[in-house]
Task: structure prediction
Amino acid sequence: MKSAAVAAIGVGATAAVIVAALVQAAGDTPAGKALGLTVSVPQQYRGLIEDAGKTCPEVSPNLLAALLQTESEFDPEARSPVGARGIAQFMPSTWETSGIDGNGDGKRNVLDPEDAIPSAAKYLCEMAEETKDVPGDKQANMLAAYNAGSYAVRKHGGVPPYKETQGYVRNITALANKPTAGTGTPAERIAAVINAADRQIGMPYSWGGGNADGPSTGGCCSPNGSSGASIKGFDCSGLVVYAYAQAGISLPRTAADQYAASTPVSREEMIPGDLVFYGSSPQGIHHVGIYVGSGYMIEAPRPGLKVRYSPITSMSDFYGAARPIQKKEI
Result:
């Protein structure tokens, strides 16, 4: 049976809300504790990171911790050759405009983690806002803007072609999504799946597009004759392959094969992270979405539309649901 927390998730929910509901559903189990912060963090900074990681929906404690580890390895006195300072490696000009007095002592000190950590979260939120209309992975664009500036991200229409920035984004994303050894629980993996799919909201539909690495140009042509060859994005099953790959789970490429590789569940048993399928038979499945709770899914709908949240009743030929994570693990 679904918990009240999971049942409360609706169309307006962000990934952060969904993850919070999963934490509540998991309770005081290791899964519930792991969802909040899985990056290894010095004890004296855990509370600061957990609080600052809730500054805006685009930032999580895990992502903030991954950024701080990448920037300074949690060294509050770190200094770079180009002048960046502190645990979050702020340049002086950026600190002047975005640094805050996090601990309320009347000073803004870039070398004080109580100021620098909440300032880093605030600056990430600012970068998310400044790049929200840029195509591509929203989280990657936000991180790239933290490293190279939002102007560079807007200019290049996504992560700029700088080796340092591209490596920076890859490293933080991998660290933030990597489960702590021994705590790769089902709840944690479900959260990773939904977070990954949520970050693709607004990506174009591309027939045959998408793989474990992200959006890609599709192949020509779809059954109705429309071409996807020149469009970078996802089709329905490509989005599923990508989202589940971020949780370390490999799935087949087509919707029908994804159903065959998963454990069927009844409509009453569905939980966030389950897959919902449409068609007339196991061999006739033509569409798949990722269930997020309260009758909604994230899907790549069809040519001309973008990845979005939709009611699972938006198509009339619902066939069934299935769970890629084994039933006995939940």
About this structure: The domain at 39-177 is CATH 1.10.530.10 (Lysozyme).
